[in-house]
Amino acid sequence: MVKTSAAKTSAQAKLAVEEAVGEVETEGMPTAPGQVPDSQAPGHSVGGQGATGFAGGSQGTTSDGAPGYGFPIQPMPSPGGAKVLAVTNQKGGVGKTTTTVSLSACFAEMNLRTLIIDLDPQFNATTAVGVEARQLDTSIYNVLVSDIQIEDIIEPTAFKNLHVAPSGRNLANAEMGLMNMLSRERQLQQAIHQVRSEYDVIMIDCPPALGLLTVNAMTAATGVVVPIQAEYLALEGVEQLSHMIRQVRMSLNPVLELTAVIIGMYDARTKLSREVAEDVRRHFGEKVCEAYVPRAVRLSEAPSHGQPITVYDPDSRSTKVFRELAKEIIDGAS
Ligand SMILES: Nc1ncnc2c1ncn2[C@@H]1O[C@H](COP(=O)(O)OP(=O)(O)OP(=O)(O)O)[C@@H](O)[C@H]1O
Ligand SMILES: [Mg+2]
What we know:
Blueprint: H1 12-21, E1 83-87, H2 96-109, E2 114-118, H3 124-128, H4 140-145, E3 155-156, E4 162-165, H5 174-179, H6 187-193, E5 201-205, H7 212-220, E6 223-229, H8 238-251, E7 257-264, H9 271-284, H10 297-301, H11 309-312, H12 317-332
Parallel strand pairs: 1-5, 1-6, 2-4, 2-5, 6-7
Antiparallel strand pairs: 3-4
Residues 96-97, 120, 124, 205 line the site of magnesium ion.
């Protein structure tokens, strides 16, 4: 184990999206101690299938660390430092990990100190950057549910400026482990706090679910990046995702923004790809990145070599697109 130098330290969907990408909402936000809207009541669920209810601080702690019983949520004081982007979409296999790893490698190439946090028990992002998750004693799981500090699990990669906070199989137990913890939604936010100044960008690869791990990612993040496949039913679940972003922003993390929507597996030769891309643009507007990630065999091969596409095939069209996306996103992210 290696220590960093860190001191330890989619008409309905559209409406939902517009709400999600809008300004920080004040409507319904508590205005005085003791006042709390339903959405922040203890155990309030974001609703919808597969979503995990989370308590907007009410079962958690207030800013001074005292148990919260309906007091207004105070955002964690920001130490500055890294932009923290949660790459999420509850649909499986839409390119979250590919996006996380490829963008991270591009940020690293840009000389930005980059950390990937692998928040998926499948540990695909960990493997994709050449780190053997199975050989590690500890993972992000231990950081979330015990006293292990994140800098104690961070591993360097073979790629300059690129570190990973690995996942492991035990992360599958994290939701249960977190369930009875105070400030269960803030475990990752608190962990990241210690290393934010050490990095320029932190990318969080989320599992394909809107559960407590994803809530932790959104609560720790400054922005959300949503990969969408240019395929049939691309916008399925987008309403629920937008709802969750809005709920997290209202209850846990007022600075959270929808940073970017990335269209992937795009094949310009097919009418379906073009129509889906148009549809996504109608729903998300300017949040959709200009460049589309092509469907490319080389992209699917790269992880098995433990290399990001920028290294596996540096001159490929995919690499070029991810470099463009990285620039677009880093310029636009808050
Ligand atoms: N643009 C692409 N062209 C070809 N294959 C791709 C592309 N993007 C991703 N893939 C492949 O599709 C599969 C799913 O991609 P990926 O693992 O990135 O999705 P995911 O959303 O992270 O999946 P999960 O929900 O299981 O975590 C992988 O085998 C990946 O290599
Ligand atoms: Mg994945």
